[in-house]
């Protein structure tokens, strides 16, 4: 035995992120661990036996014996047999054969090629893992974001572009961005997982062996897959079409991207000079081994770092689209890494949700920061209102005003009110428009409305996904 | 002027692949060239003016003057103005302003931020380019593949896995794989392009400026976008949600992947020792500057090489998912490269279709190659049939037979017929089953049926896409 | 003709970044444009003819005729001939042949395979471009950074980790980081370019044709390459070993990474709330099409965005390491894109240097920001000094003090001075140590020394590279 | 405890490739496992204590107590403490403190920031792992390749370009390509590992804390690092300059690329139609779960697949070049994955070496395949010789001959001998030249010489690396 504990692992996913969170470990293990992988294959062998029985090709008793034997399979046993014979699926078959009565043996794996089992088992376990773990955890994150969008729908904050203050928004509006983007990704992830195809089309996809056994080899395939909640693709070779997995990998990768962007925004808002939010921090928690005062946004940083680790790996998936003729095996080892992406997504969602859970929002600081830019904010509003009320070149006029304002330190509006050319147009503003110029920090457009509507839309759309 | 001809370009896309194919150049230029990019932005300004007029915020005459002026805009003029003022969209606005009557000037770009124009124009031109150029060219490729799948539905060929002969297929079945995979990608590309969102939500996405102008800023946005056949996303910041483009980039990248796989298979089938197909070759064409006899699969190689060049670039798209707060500009230059992916896909489809057009299929050679592996093919069939007829450990029995066959050079079937243990089971085979063992090259399962059905399915599904 | 101007290009590199900067265009064009590429190949043909003459295999007059003809070659002519015969290098050969006296014709390209010309010409033009354009422009950037490191060696600034104030540095120290990292990369880029191998080893690398001509084919190869300042690798196939280019691509990609990191830091320091530096801004320059007051860090953002666009492309280079047997052509199109990386590096260096040139450093603001964190800074110093003077658990003691400080708003040092347990140890501090606690903003370690030494080291090491 | 065995892991590296090979596991575990990672950090703490003692800042007895305590540290204990306090390095420090006499406690970690330990420990363990495991295993592979290059230096084989026969080589020459490329990579890997810098420069790299303790903080740093065989970089922030690791990652990634190319060539040579080599195959080994006859090149396929899995990950490394200001933590999780690349390289080298060890070379088949292309091979030789002997347009003349040969099935040479125009020049060939035309399969240039010289060169250059 090479492993005694998770600390023997090289992958930090195993040693630290998945291995270090017992709840996540228990949730993912049945689908993504090597043990789960092997058991899913055994489950596929069971489904195959039953499908053969339903088609009248195998006695029901034999099929049930096989299914029962499949339940006893362990990864350790399969690996031991593989060490002897050099083939992993045949090792699994040998073990099932050894555990059934002699007259059932010949029905084990009958008509199937290895990949009829492997690809189908992967489709099943990835679909299950997405439905039961990944999407629910993304749903919890979405629910948290929806709640913040609603709570902070009216909290004024500086809108920022290029790191510079632009015009006002509310913090709820800023969070609503992530509600909408994450919501869309959740649906894509779910649908991509549910579209993963399985197969029972034999060694080169042309049903050579199945057609020897069954007068309708494709009906047999549909039956086999239906027992696992799956469907065949329009065409298979030795393997299923790789685009199913590629679509899921894309959905997961872009989901990580949305989470990374959110995490990045949150950590930037914690900068010493900005300090609009603060990540939760335990009473015993140490921020730095040398700077005792530090309170770092480590969870948000961690989520972005996980994204960095996983996003480039999708290129492996794209490389695995190429398989020579009816298949070469240069995608075998590389595809084994697929489960890591599901685990990373589930982990990041969990970490991010926990981090947002304890996050403090400092509304006073948001207001104070916003106040830094009253003049600039007024500039856009003034330009638009001057144009609305008939000024022919308002952008240039106001741009020059802002240079004056920079030079003199006087507010843009004040300069405008004394400007001979502008005075007349300024005089035509309605009281409400004038108020925007005088209290530019309230020039927040539809921030609150959008925040609430986005929250409401996704609360409804994600109904089945959000925690009750 | 820095450029006098395409040979001044650094990018081989410009200098060689797009610039070197006048038909492709003419098709893509309106959407993907820098000229096309600028004109699409002018078109968006025109749509904005008209939408403002429809909402009663701008006189119709002014809107039409703006729209007319927008038609006269050239990239050269915009770049010249940008050189003066340092802002590309403001440069465009200045030029339109200069070309309209004075009382229309203030309505140009009214209420919009630059990205309301840029992102919307990109959505429009990418959608148009996909609908009018990329998908039709993929459709022509699909049509060619459908035709080959049908013509060669019954042409026997060795199925190959791991580069080794496995069991037989037909060449039409092999091609049907690509019909099915490409068909699915075409639909995905089309749908992703049609889902690209536009926006008119202002500098930070909260409709700050539009809401100063219009009592229903979102109605104004919908009207603006509808004039370009677009829709808004659920939420915008200064920019549209990046996932729309990411989904299209994924669709295009995986389409390139399918084409690269096809190209790879075709070039491997041209190996000197295999020689089952041959790329077309012009009478004057030179294969090598030093080996006058060479006939290389250069078009197929080229398509794979284009894939190599473009597939990693999707990581840029994934990186561009991250934009700080309501936007930072670190995705500005990088997003300008997006059009290259559309061009590369259109180019590869065109090149591949042309290459398949002239391809010669050598059915005799396919048969001859298939005959090399009669024994091996028989092995799988024999194993399945022995198991079907009651042998308890047929796989192992046949595996041992093949070792004998290797050693003695005798056919597997012959050894089986003389084997004391197997003789009885062999005796139970039906005549049709026996025929498979005796003529293993006909053991091709449902190859022909699948080839024809896949072809028929996609001929129907892609009806609107395939050339008439 | 498909191109009339740079605005017909799709690649933004061509249309905007390289095409839009006449000085950069003129510098790069001879090496990286398609015209430059073709001319470099003609130059290689000239070198080949002369090498053959030096070895006595070709009359000198014929060699000189060939060399003279090679100087007249244009890309347009080569492409026209390629359109006829379908082979680019043979097209070049035909044109040279047509331009020399009849008795010299047979010596054109004699003994060479296309890639003897193509790979050698690429090595030559990339090496020249690096030596003459890329490295000098990186050198100018390095010189600018060295100057800032020296000028700001004593300007106090908050050191920042996790976006939080940590302990003080000086701005010169912060810049010195980039002097050191960039300096190392410049040497790597230069050495990698100078190590690019050429070849004259024939169609499969075994000198088949050259050995028919020359009794010492490898001497001929060395002579050919020496005329271009190149050397052969230890082994070639049809192509040079791909690792030479991979090493250069890595060197350039990591150089972009260093520049992107610098740009990222600079744009973050321009945040409204931080405002320690400001990018230069023209008097006519427009910051936003709708927010007239905006002054955005667009050049720094641009450099990071260029990095995003180019860094993933190195995966293409790594994919191109794989070429079947003595070569397949699936790396042909993809390798044509190599020049873009050199151009992008030169462009980014130029843009970044210009941006730093006009950058204003606000030392007052740096001091003011630093003052925000006096307490935190004191915490680390206090912890280290308490430990030094004998406190057994200083980190934990100070960590608890900072929680008190957070709660009460009193300075850490003040709390420490009144703490019964700590009072005694605090009393043992030397006057200089006490000063650090009392004026924590001066706790800047060796910032100034390191800044100056790093600057001096690289001023010396890069002597040949820095502008005079 | 979450893990009981390797089958609980998600990463196939842990579960299968590293975890499944006890010898590799034992070799890598001390450096790359999480246990090894933590112990390397403890080792760095020991070195720090000793360096402080050497500088007279800590009593020697205390330093030795710390060093002794550091030896007892386990990952499990550190993780348990981290769970309590939320900081991994502080957890390590607490454990060491708890294991030393009270008066030594305050000297643990004195003056260091976490990354002074973490980055230094990583440099140490990666350097050790490369020197002790990765390079020796690459050396064994190189030795195997050198042996094959020598053994097969004279074995004729078809040179192949574009998958087509070109002109002859020898198999030893083909293998020598990989000797040369791999040899160069081994040196690069070794040098890059030995150049990895460590640091003791404190929280922001400016030696703030160390300078409070020591009058020459940089001497202290050098002493600390020297105890681990390391050196500082010219500048550090909180972290070491990222380019050191990037250079090592590049070296390893390109080493994987060389191995993948070799593996690809070997598996292609095993195609049924080519069959020039065969991977070793165990007597009990099963090739396919359904096709009992299959003998697949699974090890070669596996090596290429590992390359697919790891090559894109270098983009993570390039992304980690960017860290804000004196560091943000978004590279923390992502950098933890670095060890996987070392493990993957060691694994691939081991697998490939084993596979080559049992490889059978079928020289007869190589000759037979080569014979397929006599005519084509003669074409190049004929063209070169005709040109040498004065024909003015030999390439075109021979190109036309090959079209005739294609049409008539007659050998090129025969057609040439009867051609009115060519007859005369053909008559001038020397006997040796004529022999090349008549026995074109012997037209192999310097294949044998190059194979032997490359082998000899690297046998010498890699002397310290090759197994004795």
Walk me through the structure.
4 copies of one chain form a homotetramer. In chain A, a hairpin with a 2-residue loop joins strand 1 and strand 2. Chain A starts with 11 loop residues before the first helix and ends in a 7-residue tail after the last helix. Chain A has helices at 12-17, 22-32, 34-54, 60-70, 75-85, 88-98, 102-105, 114-151, 171-194, 208-213, 217-226, 243-269, 298-310, 314-319, 332-335, 338-357, 363-371, 374-388, 394-408, 412-418, 420-427, 431-438, 447-461; strands spanning 156-161, 164-170, 277-278, 360-361. The longest helix of chain A has 38 residues, at 114-151. By secondary structure, chain A is mainly alpha-helical. In chain A, helix 9 packs parallel to helix 23. In chain A, strands 1-2 form a two-stranded antiparallel sheet. A two-stranded antiparallel sheet of chain A has the order 3-4. Chains in contact: A-B, A-C, A-D, B-C, B-D, C-D. Chains A and B meet through helix 6, helix 7, strand 1, strand 2 and helix 9 of A and helix 6, helix 7, strand 1, strand 2 and helix 9 of B.
Mean pLDDT of chain A: 94
How helix-rich are the residues of chain A, as a percent range? 55-70%
- The oligomeric state of the chains shown is homotetramer
Sheet/helix structural class of chain A: mainly alpha
The first-to-last residue Cα distance of chain A is 44 Å
Secondary-structure element sequence of chain A? HHHHHHHHEEHHHHEHHHHEHHHHHHH
Give the percentage of residues in beta strands of chain A. Answer: under 5%
User: Using CB atoms under 8 Å apart, which protein chain pair has the greatest interface?
Assistant: A-B, 102 and 102 residues
Whole-number radius of gyration of chain A?
A: 30 Å
Count every beta strand of chain A, where a strand is a DSSP E run of 2 or more residues: 4
């Amino acid at each position: 035995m090479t492993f005694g504990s998770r600390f023997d692992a090289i992958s930090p996913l195993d040693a630290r992120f998945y291995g270090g969170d017992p709840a996540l470990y228990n949730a993912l293990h049945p689908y993504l661990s090597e043990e789960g992988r092997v058991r899913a294959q055994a489950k596929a062998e069971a489904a195959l036996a039953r499908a053969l029985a339903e088609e009248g090709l195998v006695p029901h008793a034999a099929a049930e014996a096989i299914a029962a034997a499949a339940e006893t399979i362990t990864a350790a046993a399969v690996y031991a047999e593989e060490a002897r014979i050099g083939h992993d699926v045949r090792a699994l078959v040998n073990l099932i054969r050894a555990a059934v009565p002699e007259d059932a043996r010949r029905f084990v794996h009958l008509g199937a090629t290895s990949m009829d089992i492997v690809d189908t088992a992967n489709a099943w376990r990835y679909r299950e893992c997405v439905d039961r773990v990944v999407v629910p955890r993304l749903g919890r994150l979405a629910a948290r974001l929806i709640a913040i969008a609603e709570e902070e729908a009216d909290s004024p904050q500086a809108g920022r572009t290029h790191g510079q203050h632009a015009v006002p928004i509310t913090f709820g509006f800023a969070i609503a961005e992530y509600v909408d983007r994450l919501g869309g990704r959740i649906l894509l992830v779910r649908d991509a997982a549910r579209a993963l195809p399985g197969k029972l089309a034999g060694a080169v996809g042309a049903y050579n062996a199945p057609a020897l056994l069954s007068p309708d080899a494709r009906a047999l395939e549909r039956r086999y897959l239906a027992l696992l909640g799956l469907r065949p693709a329009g065409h298979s070779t030795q393997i299923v079409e790789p685009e199913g997995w590629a679509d899921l990998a894309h959905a997961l990768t872009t989901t990580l991207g949305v989470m990374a962007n959110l995490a990045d925004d949150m950590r930037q808002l914690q900068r010493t000079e900005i300090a609009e939010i603060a990540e939760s921090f335990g009473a015993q928690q140490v921020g730095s081994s040398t700077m005792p005062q530090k309170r770092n946004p480590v969870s948000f940083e961690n989520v972005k770092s996980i994204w960095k680790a996983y996003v480039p790996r999708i290129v492996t998936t794209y490389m695995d689209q190429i398989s020579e003729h009816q298949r070469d095996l240069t995608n075998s080892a590389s595809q084994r890494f697929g489960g890591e992406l599901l685990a990373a997504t589930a982990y990041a969602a969990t970490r991010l949700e926990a981090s947002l859970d304890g996050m403090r929002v400092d509304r006073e600081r948001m207001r104070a920061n916003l106040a830094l830019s009253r003049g600039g904010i007024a500039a856009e509003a003034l330009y638009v209102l001057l144009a609305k009320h008939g000024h022919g070149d308002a952008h240039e006029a106001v741009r020059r005003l802002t240079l004056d304002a920079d030079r003199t330190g006087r507010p843009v509006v004040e300069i405008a009110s004394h400007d001979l050319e502008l005075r007349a147009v300024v005089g035509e503003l309605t009281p409400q428009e004038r108020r925007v110029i005088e209290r530019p920090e309230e020039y927040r457009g539809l921030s609150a409305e959008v925040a609430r509507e986005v929250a409401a839309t996704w609360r409804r759309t994600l109904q089945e996904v959000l925690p009750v």
